[in-house]
Amino acid sequence: MAEMSNRDALELWHDVIMNQVSQGAHDLSMRQFAILFTVYLEVGPHTVRGLAAKLSVTKPVITRALDAMSQLDLLARKRDQNDKRNVLVQRTVAGALYVENYGDLIIRSAKN
């Protein structure tokens, strides 16, 4: 792929967002996207505490985001059996499909 200009990058991002909105996809915040992509693209295990540290926010902020994403079945939480103080954040099948489809959408938008 040729190097993108600032404007090209912004137009690509705009196309992706417009596609998501017009398709009626889940309306995720930037913070929720950051959490979702961290869990799906980076090696785990992922914890509420670890995600909070990575995003420089408090644990309640992560918990609120996870509440919404859990209702959409994009991520799941499970108590760490080895350390009951930790809550593990896990991938779901629906979340994996969402991330994969989002990647496909970016590729299609980049080709246009």
List unreliable stretches of 5+ residues. Answer: none
By DSSP (H or I, 4+ residues per run), the number of helices equals 5
Q: Any idea of the CATH topology? A: Arc Repressor Mutant, subunit A
CATH architecture: Orthogonal Bundle
The portion of residues forming beta strands comes to: 5-15%
End-to-end Cα distance, whole Å, is: 13 Å
What does this entry look like structurally?
With 112 residues, the protein is mostly helical. The protein contains five helices and three strands, in the order H-H-E-H-H-E-E-H. The protein is elongated, with a radius of gyration of 16 Å. It has a three-stranded antiparallel β-sheet. It has helices at 6-22, 30-41, 48-55, 59-71, 93-111; strands at 46-47, 75-79, 87-91. Helix content is 62%, strand content 11%. Helix 1 packs across helix 5 and helix 3 crosses helix 4 (59-71). Strand 2 (75-79) and strand 3 (87-91) form a beta hairpin. The two termini are 13 Å apart. The mean pLDDT is 91. The chain has a single domain (6-111), classed as Arc Repressor Mutant, subunit A (Orthogonal Bundle), CATH 1.10.10.10.
